[in-house]
Amino acid sequence: MMRFIATLLVGGMISGSISAADVWIFSGQSNMKAIGGQAQRAVGQLVKKHQREFRSVYVAQSGKPIEAWLDSSHRDYSKLWKALEQKVIQAKTEKNRFKGFVWYQGESNANENAGQYQKQLTELVQRIRKLTDQPSLPAIIVQIGSATAYSGKDWAAATIREAQRRFARDDAHSAIVTAIDAEIKDLTVHLGKSGAEIVSSRIVAAADRLAYGNAKATWGPHFQRASFANKSRRQIIVEFTEVQQKLKLSEGWLAGFGVSQKTTLPEPLSKLKDATAMGQLTNDFLYPIGGRVLDEKRLILFFDRALSSSSRLSYGAMRNAHYGPHRRWNLEISGLRDGSGHQAPAFVLVPIQSATKEVKVEGIKTGTANEKWTQIAVNCVGRFPPAVTKPSEVAGLKSENWRQAYWNPVSSGLTPNLFD
After folding, report:
1. Rg over CA atoms, the chain
2. Do residues 44 and 100 lie in contact, with contact meaning Cβ atoms separated by under 8 Å?
3. Which residue among 19, 83, 101, 352 is the one 20 to 30 A from 418 at the CA level?
4. DSSP characters for 322-346?
């Protein structure tokens, strides 16, 4: 029987058997610590399924920016990059096979320099591949999730999510798995048990596809393109790839989509000098008044006005909750999925193409989220713990009154408002 070998960070050494094994590298900041044990066990079970022994190299530390793995002058460089390097070198001497790199980090880079993150992530993955002598080593990137700790950094956090998405888009041997719908356990950014389980299951699916060739493995739909439905520019068609069965609006709620008519992100992202100078998300963000799944791979969004041809579409850019006695909590919803049950990763400020083949919208019902709201278009798709979804426990509100107190109608119908 093949043995299951899990490796934890213990005294700077790799634990486990010295026999040849499939080695997976796990690294990142606090959320990698949160999911580390679960993710290693899950990937280990996958490796065992493929009749190989499993070994992991694991280095994670809370609150650290990606520079701690890249910049030799950073005070934590020796604790993170050098420690990781030592472990990989040790694994190489034992003639193991490196099968993949799992990275979960980015929260500490949600600042003015967020535009540099794609370039930094590319450099990190290149260094890992060079270190392992595997130029095509699969890289699985966890897209940072919901948070209540990024007050005033709407676009900076969103830029990190987009940088992670673009990296996976441009790297043929990588995958992005999202955490935007994963439950957090506290009032900051850290995943709870169920959040760690869902993210780990997506990591396993990506590992099975990239490292072990299982073409049927899937971890949610991925954005492909956005285009106007016709010359009126009042409807947007959003198309996805890697869709299993059909797109689904979880619990019938359409959430997380919005259009910016002035705010953009450059290509490449490194041209962005200051992500915090983009302002608050609410300065330039229009919500759809309705929408519905159009077919297996497409959905349509309806707006109450003609949009600029230079408009940009976002999903899961996320407004984060405020601290203090008047904090606004995000409603517990779960956004866009497919038949696999997995969430679509966020995409931020992507261009909307002109209509190549006009779609007739007459007769297409806009679709409402539920009877109470014309459109549930809050800019968040996260799931939060009871203290957040039941603010009475924190703010002293009666349970039957909290939604009325924390959500207010805004201009486009009865859309809940997180911002005033």
Report:
1. 22
2. no
3. 352
4. PPSTT--PPP----EE-TT-PBPPP
Q: Tell me which DSSP letter residue 321 carries.
A: P
H-only helix segments in 67-192: 67-70, 77, 83-93, 117-132, 154-170
Report whether the peptide linkage leading into residue 409 is cis, meaning its omega lies within 30 degrees of zero.
no
CB atoms under 10 Å from CB of 386, counted, come to: 10
Q: How far apart are CA 418 and CA 148, in angstroms?
A: 13
- Torsion of Cα atoms, 387 then 390 then 393 then 399, to 10°: 180
**Cα–Cα distance, 3 to 260 (Å, whole number):** 53
Q: What is the pTM of this model?
A: 0.84
Q: 268: which residues sit within 8 A by CB, 6+ positions away?
A: 118, 119
Q: Could you tell me the two tokens for 253?
A: 């709620």
pLDDT band at 150; cut points 50, 70, 90: low
Note the Cα 2 to chain centre separation in Å. Answer: 34
Residue 326: how many CB atoms within 10 A of its CB? Answer: 9
What SS3 class is residue 20?
Answer: coil
What distances in angstroms separate CA 106 from CA 27, 32, 41, 42, 53, one per listed residue? Answer: 12, 11, 23, 23, 31
334-356 pLDDT, tens digit each = 578 899 989 899 999 999 999 98
Q: State the alpha helices, DSSP H only, in 293-380.
A: none
